[in-house]
Amino acid sequence: MEEKKPEKKEKPKAPKRRIQVHKLYKVEEGSLTRLRKECPRCGKGYFMAQHEGRLTCGNCGYTTFTSKS
Ligand SMILES: [Zn+2]
């Protein structure tokens, strides 16, 4: 086992990825369509990440399963 070194390894900070809101909406014939579902727990502004067969909230971890049709 490797002993823990007292030195703190500083990870290079990755630039925060800002969520691109404009990609979450789709404007169709003057009406706004949400491409992503919002998180039922976190509410407005928190979108569910789409995965295969499920949607996950990156904020609270809420996961909902979507049935494939
Ligand atoms: Zn959430």
Model description:
The chain is mainly beta. It has a domain of 33 residues. Helix content is 0%, strand content 38%. The protein contains no helices and six strands. The strands form two sheets. The chain has a four-stranded antiparallel beta sheet, with no helix packed on it. Strand 4 and strand 5 form a beta hairpin. It is elongated and about 60 Å long. The N and C termini lie far apart (49 Å). Zinc ion binds next to loops.
Relative strand content: 35-45%
pLDDT averaged over residues: 78
N-end to C-end Cα span: 49 Å
The percent of residues in helical segments reads under 10%
Given as residue ranges, the uncertain stretches (5+ residues, pLDDT < 50) are none
Shape: elongated
Side-by-side strand order of the widest sheet: 3-4-5-6
* Biggest beta-sheet profile: 4 strands, antiparallel
Give the number of helices: 0
Helix and strand succession?
EEEEEE
Distinct small-molecule ligands in the complex: zinc ion
Main structural class = mainly beta
Q: Count of DSSP E strands?
A: 6
Radius of gyration: 18 Å
